[in-house]
Design brief:
Layout: H1 2-40, E1 51-52, E2 55-56, H2 58-68, H3 77-83, E3 86-88, E4 96-99, E5 109-115, E6 118-123, E7 127-132, E8 142-147
Antiparallel strand pairs: 1-2, 3-8, 4-5, 4-8, 5-6, 6-7
Helix pairs in contact: 1-2
């Protein structure tokens, strides 16, 4: 009887461990997929209100990329910031980075953190492009990050 109970307990422990690992693998998978979609659109021109490979604005690129990865996001940077995900202080690949003209205003720009101090974005000056998070323009405008 003790062996049966021990085997049953071990089965439950292993099952919960693999379930937890599966959730992390799924999260890593859709983050990776969203980044791949965004990178496939490098060079696409900026278009205010753009949500397709014909032209993207910042939130359009993020929404499109995560949508192709199976995650539905709100349309605007502000709605993504206030209505989606969990706030984080330490960036991981796939986290959304939010920017505003000053620390007291609502977000007006969003980008996807791709690791190694870089983010992918749709910027009005360069279209879909990769830049460093410590860029002299973006760094002082950073107001927070969310994990989807």
């Amino acid at each position: 009887m003790k062996k049966i109970v021990a085997v049953f307990a071990m089965t439950i422990i292993l099952s919960s461990l693999f379930s937890a690992m599966g959730g992390k693998a799924e999260a890593a998978s859709y983050h990776t997929k969203a980044i791949s979609v965004a990178k496939a659109n490098l060079g696409v021109p900026y278009r205010w209100g753009g949500i397709s490979p014909r032209g993207f604005d910042c939130s359009g690129l993020v929404k499109y990329s995560y949508g192709k990865a199976g995650k539905v996001l709100p349309r605007t940077a502000s709605d993504m910031f206030y209505k989606q995900g969990k706030r984080v202080s330490s960036l991981q690949v796939g986290d959304l980075m939010f920017f505003a003209p000053n620390k007291a205003s609502k977000p007006t720009h969003v980008a996807i953190y791709i690791g190694n101090g870089k983010m992918i974005q749709a910027a009005s000056s360069k279209g879909v492009s990769i830049t460093y998070t410590n860029n002299v323009y973006w760094k002082p405008r950073f107001i927070g990050a969310k994990r989807i």
